[in-house]
Write a structure and sequence with these properties.
Distance between the termini: 122 Å
CATH class of one domain: Mainly Beta
CATH topology of one domain: Jelly Rolls
Helix content: under 10%
Shape: elongated
Number of helices: 5
Radius of gyration: 41 Å
CATH superfamily of one domain: Galactose-binding domain-like
Number of strands: 37
Strand content: 25-35%
Length: about 550
């Protein structure tokens, strides 16, 4: 005898039984006929060859293992974009551009390419690999005006730029409209449905009546030891137990669970309403058992109702109050779906099948966590995922971050006190610049870039000279023009550049007899102080490193 399997159509809400041997299973496309797989196939598998759009079925119960086991059953044709209902307002060209051109995902080499805030991937990698704490930083620009928490960046990335994990273009879910199919052919979904937890929380229970201290609320309190009792005498039936979810909180219930007392549910209905007056029957109870165990009832329902009630026509013992321990209601969660091609008479004659109309209600991961609606796709195409030209992350959101701030973070490098290496730039970019260990001091007299200074007894920096031990012992070099009694930047150790210098490369540099000056000639007069202050690395650059041990000429 032929076997059958149930098929639920979520768009019509109907369940049908089909012969298992009449259902065709649409598998992944292959490039050419010769790419059709010879193993791992099941009877009635269907594949489409991309080069000629032909459809083949593995229709042999005992295959020979040859390519000829695949039988051509027809051809597919292009879907007319204008015939798709509910599609995004973006054109196919715009979607192609967003997907094929803009979303290169993983291969972008720059942010804001060509813009004022252009940042190369290499710079970002350098900041991450060398400068950050390598996976332990909790903030960008910590302590600065542009401080951004890692959690905020992750939130922006997780919500907005899924990029390499987007499933919206890879795994599409469609509402199927069978219009345009050859007679006897239909497209349906196979679906696996799970159910939510009990949703009867925060609403208002009530009943037509109750007896003694057993109100309707006992049937919705989650306690299986309490219960609702209806009235004990005529007129006992009909009776009902109702739950109001509240205005604006309508629910689409598709599963009901009831735990009855021994004289509980027998005949009646489970009903839904949005006006508490007219009621739609969702499920009919017929001679339900007297068991006090939980009973589960599932049914098709696509309408969200505010009010639900269990309507009791009668009970097994009409002289005893009807009793219900607990009532629970659940909504649906579709876990997976698969497109199926079916032929009504079970034959394999599927030649010239043409699908004309598809309703694009949603595109994406059918588990529900990454579903993209047409509006989402249009938003991504029109506004969000320009990638190379985005100026902000989480634009308009609570965690909005400008590209300029990101560039600032990369440019500044955010060493944040965790770098293990001190790197001194041996080629300062321009005249009168330096790289190295610097500090701020107060000048005792007017000084300019390149003046070497010692610390006088007043704690200020004065220009040193080799004429006396009281004016020697130089420790710093001025890095800017600083007036007397003003604070400024001084170099302690590092590389300094002055384009007016003309040193002999490799020459030792000494404290000169001229105040604040350097010389390649060691002082030689009696009483002079010989202090080495550095070495010339280029004609216009020196490595400044004052030696505190010096010699006096006698």
């Amino acid at each position: 005898m032929a076997s059958y399997q149930p098929i639920v159509n979520p768009f019509t809400g109907k369940m049908t039984l089909i012969r298992s041997d009449s259902a065709f299973h649409l598998k992944d496309n292959v490039a050419t006929y010769n790419d059709l797989p010879l193993t791992g196939n099941a009877e009635n598998d269907v594949r489409i060859t991309a080069d000629d759009d032909k459809m083949y079925t593995w229709g042999i119960a005992s295959p020979s293992g040859l390519i000829t086991d695949w039988k051509v059953i027809g051809s597919s044709s292009s879907v007319d974009w204008s015939a798709i209902t509910g599609k995004p307002s973006s054109t196919p060209a715009e979607i192609d551009s967003a997907v094929g051109v803009e979303h290169i995902q993983g291969t972008d080499q720059k942010l804001d390419e060509g813009g004022v805030n252009e940042v190369a991937v290499a710079d970002v990698k350098d900041a991450v690999d060398k400068k950050h704490t390598q996976g332990t930083d909790q903030k960008l620009d910590e302590g600065g005006v542009n401080e951004v928490a890692v959690a905020d960046v992750k939130d922006a990335v997780d919500k907005k730029h899924t990029q390499n994990t987007d499933t919206g273009t890879d795994n599409a879910s469609f509402n199927i409209n069978n219009e345009g199919l050859e007679d006897g052919i239909s497209l349906t979904h196979d679906e696996t449905i799970s159910y939510s937890d009990d949703i009867c929380e925060g609403g208002t229970p009530s009943a037509q009546d109750f007896w003694g201290g057993y109100p309707a609320s006992n049937a919705f309190d989650g306690n299986e030891s309490t219960y609702w009792y209806g009235t004990g005498g005529p007129p006992q039936f009909p009776n009902w137990l109702k739950y109001d979810f509240g205005s604006g909180n309508e629910k689409t219930v598709i599963k009901l669970r009831i735990k009855s007392l021994y004289n509980g549910l027998k005949n009646g209905y489970f009903q839904g309403s949005n006006d508490d007056s007219s009621w739609d029957n969702l499920y009919t109870f017929t001679n339900e058992s007297t068991s006090t165990a939980w009973k589960d009832f599932t049914f098709t329902n696509t309408t969200a109702y505010r009010y639900y009630r269990v309507y009791f026509s009668d009970a097994w013992n009409t002289g005893v109050p009807i009793g219900i321990y607990e009532v629970e209601m659940m909504e649906a969660s579709i876990l997976s779906d698969a497109l199926r091609i079916e032929h009504g008479d079970g034959s394999e004659d599927l030649n010239n099948i043409i699908v004309k109309n598809l309703s694009a209600s949603s595109f994406g991961d059918s588990s529900g966590s990454n579903v993209s609606t047409p509006a989402n796709i249009k938003d991504a195409v029109d506004k969000k995922h320009t990638q190379g030209t985005d100026q902000k992350l989480d634009e308009g959101g609570a965690n909005e971050v400008a590209v300029a701030d990101v560039k600032d973070a990369v440019d500044k490098k955010h060493t944040q006190g965790t770098d293990e290496d001190i790197i001194i730039d041996s080629t300062p970019d321009s005249d009168h610049t330096a790289s190295g260990i610097k500090s701020t001091f107060t000048a005792g007299e007017n000084v300019a870039f390149g003046d070497v200074c010692y610390v006088k007894s007043d704690g200020k920096m004065w220009k040193g000279d080799a004429n006396s031990d009281s004016t020697a012992s130089v420790v710093v070099m001025a890095l800017e023009t600083i007036s007397a009694d003003a604070s400024g930047s001084f170099l302690l150790i590092g590389i300094a550049r002055d384009d007016s210098w003309a040193w002999t490369v490799g020459a030792l540099l000494y404290l000169s007899g001229t105040a604040g000056a350097l010389t390649e000639t060691a002082p030689s007069s009696s009483g002079d102080q010989v202090q080495i202050l550095g070495v010339a690395t280029h004609a216009d650059r020196i490595y400044f490193k004052p030696e505190l041990v010096q010699v006096e000429i006698t």
